[in-house]
Structures are given as structure tokens and as C-alpha cells.
Design brief:
By secondary structure, the chain is α+β, with helices and mostly antiparallel strands. 52% of the residues lie in helices and 13% in strands. It contains 14 helices and nine strands. The strands form three sheets. The chain has a four-stranded antiparallel sheet, with no helix packed on it. Strands 1-4-5 form a three-stranded mixed sheet. A two-stranded antiparallel sheet has the order 8-9. The structure holds flavin-adenine dinucleotide (FAD).
Amino acid sequence: MSATDIAAEAAGDDASPEPSEIPFSLALSQDQKDIRDWVHGFAEGVVRPAAAEWDEREETPWPVIQEAAKIGLYGFESLAQFFMDPTGLQMPIVNEELFWGDAGIGMAIMGTSLAVAAIFGQGTNEQIGEWIPQCFGTEDDPQVAAFCASEPDAGSDVSMIRTTAKYDEATDEWVINGQKAWATNGGIAKVHVVIATVDRELGSRGHAAFLIPPGTKGCEQGAKVKKHGLRASHTADVHLDDCRVPGACLLGGKERLDERLARVREGKQARSQAAMQTFEASRPTVGAQAVGIARAAYEYALDYAKEREQFGRKIVENQAIAFTLADMKMEIDAARLLVWRASWMGKQQGMVFENAEGSMSKLKAGEVAVWSTERAIQILGGNGYTREFPVERMHRDAKIYTIFEGTSEIQRLVISRAISGMKIA
Ligand SMILES: Cc1cc2nc3c(=O)[nH]c(=O)nc-3n(C[C@H](O)[C@H](O)[C@H](O)COP(=O)(O)OP(=O)(O)OC[C@H]3O[C@@H](n4cnc5c(N)ncnc54)[C@H](O)[C@@H]3O)c2cc1C
């Protein structure tokens, strides 16, 4: 099935059940279990053994991405298959398993999906068909894509985006200028999706998303970021200097943008804001990644506690340790349930989260991941603090989940605004 066919199917041109006909169920279908076990096998057999090496190297693990492409785990067809699951659960299940294997490598594999989500959510059928396959490359020559919203002075506050896109009518091109910060796969991506402002006075409602085709002059990687965790995932600044892209690279097309801007200028509500729409859709999936890290640390700590002896008994026989493990298990399950609820709701209601359920899921899962991995270090004692054991890496990896895709504070802001209807600052 081509990317365009999948887009048409997602838009409802098929005979699959209406999402509202899918009741909530925790009983996974055979298909869901098979895919979960398949991804788990890859995470256990390929990702885990490579995790420490790529964390130390702080480089994109291309051989692992290639392996994932070879088995069909990395590519649009599989991503679309996970995404199209009418229950919404397949995407979080796959992410949890992969990130259980390792979060740095997991992000090297899944980082492309943020750009893909932007193209899929905002692009025309033609753009989806042309650009999404390029984001992944081929089985023999896999590529990655980058989604560039953040800037040095626009992190939590995306309305501060200063990158501009100006339309050159004479050549039917957009001219993009600015500096992007923190872009996952920035500079090494085949396709960059860049959020730029076309009308600064409109704040985030004046934003639009642009495709930067491979090899475009004026799009360069800036400094590569040396990170605390998630080190197998490449993060870098991206510089855009008089970067000219064809008119057709505006996601959704000019007519739709002009209509939207006209509505905003008339004081009517804009339906979507380019960056926010992408983040809203991806939050439960990001939460699932955090659940995967938390579960990996919990399982490691449980096994360790059942082996390690002090004072003549297994350390798990002390309530202090056993109760911690009980709390870890409970918190991880609670986080997963919030993730699954948001993922299911997203399918049922077209991503309308009335009480910011997407944000709740990401907030809870991120905080549980940080807490659980820290507890896992404690349970392993001195060993937990060393690079000989994986829980210290898991702890470093987990921390990003309270920061990117909206910090924990911003998630609380979104939730409190949603539940109160008030302008909480
Ligand atoms: C590894 C990594 C990968 C990333 N990948 C991408 C990517 O692919 N694409 C992309 O566009 N971006 C990416 N980012 C950027 C990321 O989304 C931002 O770092 C994040 O949004 C926070 O922005 P900031 O770092 O500027 O922090 P700031 O916005 O400066 O926030 C600093 C602190 O102030 C708090 N704060 C800010 N405003 C408020 C408020 N109103 N109320 C209460 N507290 C507040 C924050 O919660 C935080 O604790 C990535 C970042 C990292 C570290």
C-alpha cells in the first residue's frame, strides 16, 4: 500500500469500522500480541545488546536502523499499520517494547516519526505520497527525518518562533531564514520539516510547516548537542540561511494557509497551529516510550533484588525494597493505563482531549520513568551507579521525558487550563 493510499484510508475512504464503534478493552487482539512480541524480540535480541556501545559512542546507530528497516519495523508501511489500528493501542505497545530495549536507539528509530506525523497530519495527499517514503529511505539505504520547531528563544513558548518564511511570488518559492535548536536528527535528516512564521503579528497562529528537500542550499547542521542521556539519538541545531524551497513544500498548500490566515485576521478561531498539532498527536506515544524505560528498570531491579543477598537474605525480603518494587509496578501500570486511554481516545474523537488526557499521559509516564529509574539505581546500590549496569543509562535516558514535547510544567499548564477553562499562567 502506498503512502497516498494509507492517507486516503486514514481519511475514511475504506470499509473499516467507525472508530466510535470500538469499545474500550484491555484484551489485546492476536494481531496486537503478535506485533508486540515481534518488536519485543527485536528489542531484546538486537537493541539491548547494542545499547551500551551506542550510548558511549554518542552516534546514530545506523546498523541497528538498517536491521529495523530490513525486518520491516522501520518504514512507513509498518508505522502506518501501527497507526491505523482502530483501538489506538498498537502505537503505544510498539513504542513501549522498543524503548524497553533501549531509549537512545529507540529514539534513533522513532525520531523520524515526528516529522512523518507533521506531514501526515498537515500535508496534502500528494505531499504525503511524495515525502513520507523519502523520510525513511529504503531497506538498503535507510534515512531519517527531523521535525524542527524549537529555537534558542522558543522552547516552551512556541509563539516566540523567529524563523521566517517569505513567499517569493516571482519564482513560486518560500525563502526561509532562522535558527532551529535541539532538532532530533537535525542536519543528518534526508527531510527536515521546519516550523516558520509567515506572519509574526499572529504569534503561533501565524506559523506554517515547510518541507526542506534533501540537499537544499542554505539548510545546514549547526552544533551537535552533547547530552546527559538518549545519546544514541542525534540532536543538533539547524541553520536556515536564505533557504529556498518550492511553493509546493508548504505543508497543506498555499490556498489552505491563506484561508486560515484570513480567518485568524478576522478574529475567528484557527483550527490548528502547526507545531502544537504535531505535539498533541504524539504525546501518548511519547508517554509509551517513557513507560518502556520505566518497565525495563523495574524488571532489572526486581531480578537483582531477588538475587542479591545481604544480612543473610535476599534484599527483596526487606519490605523497604519489596514495597518500592510494588510501588514501581503500580505506578508503571497506572502510567500505561493513562497512555492507553489517551491513545484510544485519540482514535475515537479525532484527538480532541477535553481534559488534556494526552498531556496527562505524557506527564505521568515521564515522571514515573524518572522516579522508577532512580529507585532502580537505589535497589542496585553501588552497582546501580556504574556503567557496568544498565539502570544508570536508563535513568539518564528517562530524564528527557519531563522536558521534551512539552515539559512537565507545560503539561500541568495545559491540563489545568483544560479542566478549569481559565487562563492559568
Ligand atoms: C534531547 C532533545 C531532543 C529534542 N528534540 C526536539 C525536536 O526533535 N524538535 C524540536 O522542535 N524540539 C526538540 N527538543 C526541544 C524541546 O522540545 C525543548 O527543550 C522543550 O520544549 C523545552 O524548551 P526549553 O528547553 O527552551 O526550556 P524552557 O522553555 O526555557 O523552559 C525552562 C524551564 O522553565 C519552565 N517553564 C517555562 N515556561 C513556563 C511556564 N509558563 N510555567 C511554568 N514553568 C515554565 C519549563 O517547564 C522548564 O522547567 C528537544 C530537546 C532535547 C533536550
